[in-house]
Amino acid sequence: MEIVDSYLIEIGQHLPEDSRQDILAELKVTLEEEIGDRAAQAGVEPDVQHAQAVLQRFGHPLKVASEYRPVRYLIGPDLYPAFLHTLRVLLTIAAVGVVVVSLVAAFAEGWQVGVWSLIDVGVSLLFWILVVTTGVFVAIEYSGERLGWYESWQPRRLASGSLGIIDRGDVMTNLVTEGVFLLWWNNVLVLPNVINGDSGSFVFNLGQVWAAYFWPFNVLVGACFVLHLYVLMKGVWQRPSLVLEIACNTALVAVLIVLVTSPEIVVVANETAGDQSEFLTNLVDRTLRISLLVISGFCVWDMWSAWRHFKGASWRRSSAA
Amino acid sequence: MSLDPQIAEKLLSEMRRGAIVLAVLGQLQREHYGYSLRKNLVDRGLHVEEGTLYPLIRRLEKQGLLTSEWREEDKRRKRFYRLSTDGREIYAQLMHDWQLLNTSIQKTTGRSE
Prior knowledge:
Chain A is mostly helical. Helix content of chain A is 67%, strand content 8%. Chain A folds into three domains: 2-67, no CATH class; 72-158, no CATH class; 160-321. In chain B, 62% of the residues lie in helices and 16% in strands.
């Protein structure tokens, strides 16, 4: 029957070559018998309708063919968790590497970079890490090699004194924000500080009051950066890391509040904006103060989260007792 | 909260997967070709999709649990399968384990006689 032959040809396209003819010959006999049986039950000669009904039940040619093939993965379920873990570690190291190398280059050579260049470097790095890591894991999957991570695991390597699992997205966001801030604060990343109006451009800079906080910000945000990198690698909050998290955020909030209440946190570098000058100065000043308050809010939220981990841990201890 | 019917379907399919292998090995103590095997299983209340059964027979043959030969019957060339020596050994072992598992399940679910 022509429809059966067409069905078998469709299946045959997706079968391994060495067993194709054998499988198709067997399927042909089976299909013809089933069609014959179906027609015999109805007391008629087999026709296309019977064939269609049987083929419909057999299923899509691609699905039938796939059942004859061994299950293949690019990266299988055994390796996938290790793949994700490796990717996460490499991406974190790369992100930190970009910040550290940029800071070193800035201090040594006075190197600077624009926003788009930084994004370009970040995306390229991300792409290559993804490609190389995937390639390595596909090679491991296909070669049948195993990393031996699961077999060599020992309970004594577990992090002691864990007070809770970290929110990876939250910590990663903090890490990236702190990295970008450090680059900008140390004049590596150059952000545009010009507003172009109808009557000219308006250049603004941070006020003199910020100068006193150059090192405090570097130390505080740098400490947060290192802390979040450490926590991200560990995957859990521990007592010292929570204490440091609360301490750093408290200090940051204090500095930010002082800045918000300070006069002239923004100064105008040129005043070619004419009549709009006063309006734009007020606008930038207000926007910056609101931004600082919002950042303070995020810091308070981080402190609150850290405190909840403490409380959660004490609740766990009392319920265990 | 209503139960997702796909969950029950998936659990049933996982549970049946091993049982089908056992049933197929059991049936192939006697010689069968693909379609006759399926009819036998259906007659005994075990409905197995064609797309699952026929590739399964070939996998079992590849694993050395079945032997096969092409032969003519009713003016058609058909491929007949039966248990190999290894297949008989494995089948006996699986049946033994199946009985133990069945007893354990009955005990743990409180349904033992």
